[in-house]
Amino acid sequence: MTTPGSGNVRIGRRLSLRVALIVALSLPGVVAAVPLPPVDRVAFAPPPGAMLPLHAVFTDESGRRDELGAWLRARPAIVVPAYYGCSNLCTTTLRATRAAIDAAGLHAGRDVDVVAISIAPLETPALARAKKREVLGDQATQRNDGWHFLTGDDAAIRLVTRELGYRYAYVAAERQYAHAAGIAVVGTDGHVARVLYGVAFPPHELRAALASAGAPTPAIDSRAGTSDTAASWLLCFHYDPASGRYTFAAMNAARAAGLLALAALAGYVTLAWRREHRGASRGNAR
Predict the structure, then answer these.
(1) Is the pLDDT of residue 76 over 70?
(2) Over the Cα atoms of the chain, what is R_g?
(3) Residue 176: which pLDDT band, with cuts at 50, 70 and 90?
(4) Residue 154 domain flag
(5) Enclosing domain of residue 25
(6) pLDDT digit string, tens, across residues 199-258
(7) pLDDT tens digit string along 97-124?
(8) How far from the centroid of its chain's Cα atoms is residue 63's Cα?
(9) DSSP code of 191?
(10) Where are the alpha helices (DSSP H) in the chain?
(11) Are residues 261 and 146 part of one domain?
């Protein structure tokens, strides 16, 4: 025996199951369709005996054009591959470098120089100046602050990144670069002494790296990480400095769409149940 409306409820339930099946099957497809980071094209692993090309020509944030050696020969340097159009991971790495120098009791311009090198050949000294102000604040206006934000053409950038073992990829859909986060500690002769990966540099490790940069024999020390470790610190886009995690807007959007679909399904089932309940009540009343 059936009650009024029970046939509609059965149809509604079947439809609900179909909707649920469609949602369940479509969500993995949507997420899978999101382009994942080009991890295989990203690295930060200098070859043994790596020497930065001191003759490569760059321009700093003030418009001064010179060979890279002009910013490296005075004292050991921290070289930070980055690009200035990035407001997330690159800025976090540069600020972490400043914090590590302060925590180690060092002074940029006296104990160490910091040389940021843009990997984007179209960036300008104006962008470099803006990034320097963003990172250093009022300190950016001081003379001999020890911070240098360089830009260069594609040829100069490739010379440096080749010696750093620094591979990156431009992601057109995101209009950003996928790259590893970290810093290279370099001696005054240009040899790469050590690479520290990530966005946090313990003071004792920084001091040890700078000490090794003063060693007469070039030898890369990567105890703080490997190229595999660097792979866990990828991608300048959708990096959340607050949580230290990477997020993907497209994936989040897909998940949000799925949740909305599930919410709509739950609403439909609830409405069907209420209709069934009302139909059963009317049948009993008769």
Answers:
(1) yes
(2) 28
(3) confident
(4) yes
(5) 6-34+248-285
(6) 889 999 999 999 988 855 444 544 433 334 444 454 554 445 555 444 443 344 334 444
(7) 999 999 999 999 999 999 999 999 999 9
(8) 28
(9) B
(10) 6-33, 89-103, 125-136, 154-164, 203-213, 227-230, 249-285
(11) no
Element (H, E) at 58: strand 57-59
Burial category of 89 from C-beta neighbours within 10 Å (exposed 0-12, middle 13-18, buried 19 and up): buried
Q: What is the pLDDT of residues 126-139, one digit of tens each?
A: 999 999 999 998 77
- Does any domain span residue 1? no
Residue 167 shares a structural domain with residue 211: yes
- If you search the block for the tokens 């690159």, which residue do you land on? 90
Nearest to 131 by CA among 116, 153, 146, 152: 116
CATH of the domain at 237: 3.40.30.10
Tokens representing residue 158 in the block: 């490739």
Three-state DSSP at 74 gives coil
Residue tagged 């002494």 (tokens) = 193
Q: How would you classify residue 149: left for phi > 0, otherwise alpha for psi between -120 and 50, otherwise beta? A: beta
Please measure the distance between the N-terminal and C-terminal CA atoms of the chain and give it in whole angstroms.
15
| Sign of the dihedral defined by the CA atoms of residues 262, 267, 272, 274, in that order | positive
Q: Are residues 18 and 93 in the same domain?
A: no
Query: pLDDT-derived band of residue 53, with 50, 70 and 90 as boundaries?
Result: very high
Spatial CB neighbours of 13, under 8 Å, sequence gap ≥ 6: 269, 272
Number of domains in the chain: 2
Neighbours of 90 (CB within 10 A): 27
Written as one letter, the residue type at 228 is D
DSSP per-residue codes, 230-283? HGGGB-STTEETTTTEE--HHHHHHHHHHHHHHHHHHHHHHHHHHHHHHHHHHH
